[in-house]
Automatic annotation (TrEMBL):
Family statement drawn from the similarity comment of this UniProt entry: Belongs to the transglutaminase superfamily. Transglutaminase family.
Domain named Transglutaminase-like: residues: 255-348
Annotated protein name in UniProt: protein-glutamine gamma-glutamyltransferase
Keyword Lipid biosynthesis: no
Upper lineage: Eukaryota, Metazoa, Chordata, Craniata, Vertebrata
Enzyme Commission (EC) number: 2.3.2.13
GO molecular function (one): metal ion binding
Positions with a binding annotation for Ca(2+): 385, 387, 437, 442
Length: 701
């Protein structure tokens, strides 16, 4: 009697991957989602008879064992204790079609499949199955009801990351590329590297926390090395990436951290990793985000007598923007009401439980002020809710004295933004993170938060923290909300001409007063260039004026900066810089003081992309990139970066110097390898300008 042997396994890849929404992955193996049936066709050396023993074995990890739950032995028609089941769909001669349903809380990862018949074991070719989280399965904790949301947050491999400043937000196109070659393998490598136990791999809470740690290189030689120094000679400048694909491919190949990232790069890569593993995820940008190092919910900003910000004194800072991610999941470890979006952040800012990791923190906990909930909710709360306090540093008898010149209670955590579902536009999600400023709910939420965050010493913290006692006499305890001023003074900062590099910066400070009477106002204004992290790069100019206002009136004071004052700095720094204007006004008659700060970005000429609106699979088409330098300065050492997922591999063109008025045209021939809506992304970088982006969509049929 011939013993039963399996002779082949067909993983029915095209049918299974379509049903599991995994047909996009560029990989030989079968990729399926947990909690949902998939089919395999097993070929045998003879027909199956009654009494034949047949089972499928799924093993995960180095040394799979039944008693550890890492080896599952599934016999048809019998439910296994781990919530997996397997059944015959049909038996046909020497073939049998089996349906396998994994548990909706199975550990995610790579499983080896074997067919066992009696004492014989058959190991199929490409027998490794990748099992992912399943937002389509109601019993999976990452279940998401809306089809449109799943299409965006799980399946969309392109998107935008919003950057700039609250005053001028712009979108940076980003290619997430979660389906590209080696990206899934890189994510599986990170899962193994995380040393999460099998039980921990069931839960997206643990997986997302581990990934927030592994996307930065800080304690575990993870994916990306952060660098905010301005010197990127030994790697790629953070401004020069246009997507996650090259970063994850390089990391998977070398197993060494890729140089260099800043917050939007960390967020772009973490978004790719989470979507790739099947957890719905979005990039979230907050403008004027507090990086508060003491958890006392105030960020102290020090100004000299000219009104210029001083870097040296501040330990905490306000970033013009900061980007993190929201991942979608049920929080089974928390009381009811905190499921849904969870903030996770892989930018290495502060250690949490001894590692640079942050989250998942329920977005609802931030809104309600429940900042005791895990993980890192105090930190995230402070990022979007701190008050900004301005201190004027004056020399009195040779010693620095600190005078408080204003508190902004509504300046932090503005315009919280993400890409809209199914549309190429920005969606403002501030209301998910906080109640409207000044509302009753906001005050209650704030009181709740304050009851958990004991504001340490409410006094200015400078770089000389140890000598803080000696400043004692000039310090008033901070009030949570500033009283209104007697004169109703207000400041507005604007640009009166477009901010083109190479032209004078034409700025203006408007002083407005609403109370009747004659008022004398001392105004100090300064203009500086700063990095998005709030670090000042150059002082460009200041004004000091005394003006008289009568009754309800306003006056506009110009502040003009010549090109010579800033062009040198602009071409010597490696990062994009913002123009920042700070104004301090003091009403002589009442001692009312007010400080206002606005950041703006330079405006650049556009890149135009010319290509057809549709193309056919594997049929070449032409794509042209056109750029006219409309500025008054030559752009030196220009490079054009181009990438189109499924149509064109990431390529860099060196264009040299582009003189004013010159038109540059680069052409590429594209061969589409995948169907559907695809996107071409281009970015121009030069010494003077760090990033002009453009993109255009095309439908491949």
């Amino acid at each position: 009697e011939t013993s039963l042997k399996a002779t082949g396994v067909d993983f029915l890849k095209s049918q299974n991957t379509q049903e599991h929404h995994t047909d996009g992955y560029n990989i030989k193996n079968l990729v399926v989602r947990r909690g949902q049936p998939f089919q395999v066709l097993v070929s045998l050396n003879r027909e199956l008879r009654a009494g034949d023993k047949l089972s499928l074995r799924f093993g995960i990890g180095e040394n799979p064992m039944k008693n550890r739950g890492s080896l599952l032995s599934l016999k048809p028609e019998r439910e296994n204790f781990n919530g997996w089941k397997i059944s015959f769909v049909k038996k046909n001669g020497k073939e049998c079609l089996l349906s396998v349903t994994s548990s909706p809380n199975a550990p995610v990862g790579k499983y080896n499949l074997y067919v066992k018949t009696g004492t014989n074991t058959y190991k199929p070719e490409n027998g490794v199955i990748y099992l992912l989280f399943n937002p389509w399965c109601e019993d999976d904790v990452v279940y998401m009801a809306s089809e449109a949301q799943k299409k965006e947050y799980v399946l969309n491999d392109t998107g935008y990351i919003y950057v700039g400043s609250a005053y001028s937000i712009y979108d940076r196109p980003w290619n997430f590329g979660q389906f590209e070659e080696f990206v899934l393998d890189a994510c599986m490598y990170l899962l193994d590297k995380s040393k999460l136990s099998l039980a921990d791999r069931r839960d997206p809470t643990n997986v997302s926390r581990a990934m927030s740690a592994l996307v930065n290189a800080n304690d575990d030689s993870g994916v990306l090395l952060g660098n905010w120094s301005g010197n990127y000679i030994s790697g790629t400048s953070p401004m020069d990436w246009i997507g996650s694909v090259i970063i994850l491919q390089q990391y998977y190949k070398t197993k060494k951290p890729v140089r260099y990232g800043q917050c939007w790069v960390f967020a772009g890569v973490l978004n790719t990793v989470m979507r790739c593993l099947g957890v719905p995820c979005r990039c979230v940008s907050t403008f004027d985000a507090a990086h508060d190092t003491e958890e006392n919910l105030t960020v102290d900003i020090y100004l000299n007598e000219k009104g210029e910000k001083l870097n040296s004194l501040s330990l905490d800072s306000v970033w013009n923007f900061h980007v993190w991610n929201d991942a979608w999941m049920k929080r089974t470890d928390l009381p009811d009401g905190f499921s849904g979006w969870q903030a996770i952040d892989s930018t290495p800012q502060e250690q949490s439980q001894g590692r640079f990791q942050c989250g998942p923190c329920p977005v609802k906990a931030v809104r309600e002020g429940d900042v005791y909930l895990p993980y890192d909710s105090k930190f995230v709360y402070a990022e979007v809710n701190a008050d900004r306090v301005y201190w004027l540093v004056k020399k009195v008898n040779g010693k620095d004295k600190y005078f408080k010149v204003g508190t902004e209670t509504q300046a932090i955590g503005k315009n919280i933004s993400t890409k809209a579902v199914g549309e190429n536009r920005r969606e403002d999600i501030t209301r998910e993170y906080k109640y409207p400023e000044g509302s009753r709910e906001e005050r209650m939420s704030m009181q709740r938060a304050y009851s958990f965050i004991r504001p340490s010493a409410l006094m200015p913290r400078s770089g000389y923290a140890s000598t803080v006692q000696t400043l004692g006499e000039t310090v008033q305890p901070l009030v949570l909300k500033e009283p209104g001023t007697k004169t109703g003074i207000q400041l507005k900062i604007t640009n009166t001409e477009p901010l083109h590099p190479g032209n004078p910066l034409e700025l203006a400070i408007t002083v407005m007063i609403s109370a009747p009477g004659n008022w004398t106002v001392d105004l100090i204004g300064s203009c500086q260039l700063q990095y998005y992290t709030g670090k000042v790069q150059a002082n460009l100019g200041t004004i000091k004026e005394t003006i008289s206002l009568e009754g309800t009136s306003e006056m506009q004071i110009p502040l003009k900066i010549a090109p010579d004052a800033y062009m040198k700095t602009l071409s010597s720094v490696e990062d994009e810089v913002l123009i920042i204007v700070t104004a301090i006004a003091e009403v002589k008659e009442t001692n009312d003081k007010l400080t206002k700060e606005t950041s703006m970005r330079f405006q650049y000429p556009p890149i135009t992309i010319q290509m057809p609106e549709t193309a056919q699979l594997y049929n070449d088409f032409n794509c042209a990139f056109i750029f006219k330098n409309k500025l008054n300065v030559t752009l030196e050492n220009c490079k054009l970066l181009v990438e189109g997922l499924g149509i064109f591999k990431m390529t860099t063109f060196d264009l040299g110097d582009i003189m004013p008025g010159r038109i540059m045209k680069s052409e590429v021939i594209c061969t589409p390898t995948r169907l559907g809506e695809k996107k071409m992304v281009a970015k121009l970088i030069s010494d003077q300008i760090k990033g002009i982006s453009a993109e255009k969509g095309i439908t491949i049929t």
